[in-house]
Design goal:
The structure holds two protein chains of two kinds.
Chain A lengths: L3 E4 L2 E4 L5 E7 L7 E6 L6 E5 L3 E2 L7 E6 L2 E6 L9 E6 L7 E2 L3 E5 L1
Parallel strand pairs in A: 2-11
Antiparallel strand pairs in A: 1-3, 3-8, 4-5, 4-9, 5-6, 7-8, 9-10, 9-11
Chain B lengths: L2 E5 L2 E3 L5 E8 L8 E6 L5 E7 L6 E3 L7 E6 L4 E6 L8 E8 L8 E4 L3 E5 L2
Parallel strand pairs in B: 2-11
Antiparallel strand pairs in B: 1-3, 3-8, 4-5, 4-9, 5-6, 7-8, 9-10, 9-11
The chains are: A mainly beta, B mainly beta.
Chain lengths: 108, 121
């Protein structure tokens, strides 16, 4: 099973800041990596797939990079609606498909 | 647009069974793998089970193997999850999720709103 590790667990940031979230895989997942955003009481929403491709309707301030075992999600200028929990997920080796434990963005 | 609507959640006692359904619309259901993903209260996301586009091949996370069965009825555009021998640790919101394709290299591009399953005596 591939273990996905996200860091940090919580990030306190202010609106307008640039933020970078990290995701590490226990073995290579090539570029088969997705990022999701989840707000309280809601279903997750796909942000990024194939490590760097924005999903339909996702603002350009969200970008993804990386391959192999190291990945990052960057939000170029944080908006109020971006405070949420972010998960990475690998889909290179299954079963199981595995998620990171999440990074919570909170308001500083 | 894609709509996934789960139903069937509720409160059940340990050791009993429960069936979930997910009605799909807005896309060609027969072309995509489908998945169940769960989230325990205050916890992260855990993939549970998957079925291929034709309903022939299934996969499960180890913790539910032998207890849960995923299936689909392509004539009804509906995904199912039959859960038997339920345990307290199965308590979660269960999300139906659409796979991105039909080759198992699936990310989850659409999600239902989730249905809560509570296992408690």
């Amino acid at each position: 099973e591939i273990v996905m590790t996200q860091s940090p667990a919580t990030l306190s940031v202010s609106s307008g800041e640039r933020v970078t979230l990290s995701c590490r895989a226990s073995q290579s997942v090539s570029s088969n990596l997705a990022w999701y955003q989840q707000k309280p009481g809601q279903a997750p929403r796909l942000l990024i797939y194939d490590a760097s491709t924005r999903a339909t309707g996702i603002p350009a301030r969200f970008s993804g990079s990386g391959s192999g075992t190291e990945f990052t999600l960057t939000i170029s200028s944080l908006q109020s609606e971006d405070f949420a929990i972010y998960y990475c997920q690998q889909y290179n080796n299954w079963p199981p498909y595995t998620f990171g434990q999440g990074t919570k963005l909170e308001i500083k | 647009q894609v709509q996934l609507v789960e139903s069937g959640g509720g409160v059940v006692q340990p050791g009993t069974s429960l069936g979930l359904s997910c009605a799909a619309s807005g896309f060609t259901f027969t072309k995509y793998d489908m998945h169940w993903v769960r989230q325990a209260p205050g916890k992260g996301l855990e993939w549970v089970a998957a079925v291929d586009y034709a309903g022939r091949t299934t996969y499960y996370v180890d913790s539910v193997k032998g207890r849960f069965t995923i299936s689909r009825d392509n004539s009804k555009n509906t995904l199912y999850l039959q859960m038997n021998s339920l345990r307290a640790e199965d308590t979660s919101v269960y999300f139906c999720a659409k796979g991105s394709g039909n080759d198992w290299y699936d990310y989850f591009d659409s999600w239902g709103q989730g249905t809560l399953v509570t296992v408690s005596s």
